[in-house]
Amino acid sequence: MSKDTSIGWGLIGASTIAKQYMVDAIRAQPGHFVRAVMSSQQDRADRFAADCNIPAAYASLDALLADPQVQVVYISTTNELHRDQVLAAAAAGKHVLCEKPLALSTEDARTMARACQKAGVLMATNHHLRGAATHRKIRELIQSGAIGKPLFARVFHAVYLPPHLQGWRLDKPQAGGGVILDITVHDIDTLRFTLDSELLEVVGMSQNAAMASEGLEDGAMAVLRFDNGVLAQIHDAFTVKHGGHGIEYHGDAGSIIGRNVMSQQPVGDIMLRNASGEQQIPVEHEGLYIRGVAAFCAALAGQGSPSASALDGILSLTGALAVLQACKSGERQSVPRPTI
Length: 340
Ligand code: NDP
Prior knowledge:
Blueprint: E1 7-12, H1 16-27, E2 32-38, H2 42-52, E3 56-58, H3 61-66, E4 72-75, H4 82-91, E5 95-98, H5 106-119, E6 123-125, H6 133-143, E7 150-158, H7 168-171, H8 179-195, E8 199-207, E9 219-226, E10 231-237, E11 246-251, E12 254-259, E13 269-274, E14 277-281, H9 288-300, H10 310-329, E15 333-334
Parallel strand pairs: 1-2, 1-4, 2-3, 4-5, 5-6, 7-10
Antiparallel strand pairs: 7-11, 8-9, 8-15, 9-10, 11-12, 12-13, 13-14
Bound molecules: NADPH dihydro-nicotinamide-adenine-dinucleotide phosphate.
């Protein structure tokens, strides 16, 4: 397809995630290309553009949004910047795929979604785990009754934050640092997706093991109650080097054990255990980000919905903020269920 008929993306944020996964995920979509990148520093934008072979590099949001070849923006700046960047993109008539957490408050996230609705542009959230063949298979198994009535879930997502990412997540509360807005928000989204259920209430405790600066958590454990009755236990950290990761679901007729599945890579195994014994469930792995961007592009073309909508981003953020508040206050928190 020629550039004239294809859809150009602008990257807002010269970030690690954009470079590691999203440029390739966009380029994997027929008819889509990466037109531009924007950084707050022109030299970083230029370097990123050169490294990734992107034609245009900007140091201002206005310049990127004024580029007529940019029709969609992917926002992966630090979290405190998402709101105003989405609002500007919507005002410029650009479709938006925004990173999680969408914002630092539910109200801001709702404002962003409403602005996109009003402008008639698509907005979605980049919760990549919904794109994993493993989590999609788990959702299918639960819906088919493979474990009977789901009763419990356990998420093990205590990992080690690699040295190249040991920056704002650990020392900038104003940027939405901390493990809860970084990892717990993904766990909550994954549980909402697989269980097809919404959060009711949470309790939690957090830890600062001195990787994060004072006032920010680098580890957390929480218990969540969903509206289908499921109790879920989550364990998230930046500080655990050798724990491995996974997810489990336990119902009255069986259990699903997912190992190595809380990953950015298309990897992991699922085991189903019930009265018939234990069986490994086959999954056809595919790139999580590629699949997520494909769903977004299909939705742009009027086919289906994005993997995680703007509302999904709002609801998962609201759950994570409730866990944060539960940890801070030591009190059980009811989780509101906002709409756009
Ligand atoms: P990075 O720290 O790599 O990038 C965030 C911002 O930091 C960039 O926009 C950039 O600013 C600045 N920056 C990057 N590299 C440098 C550098 N070498 N020197 C100075 N500044 C630099 O963040 P991530 O890519 O890890 O995360 C970005 C967003 O994506 C966050 O919202 C995060 O929550 C989300 N995320 C989502 C994931 C998912 O799987 N869905 C996975 C990882 C992150 P500028 O643009 O001004 O150059």
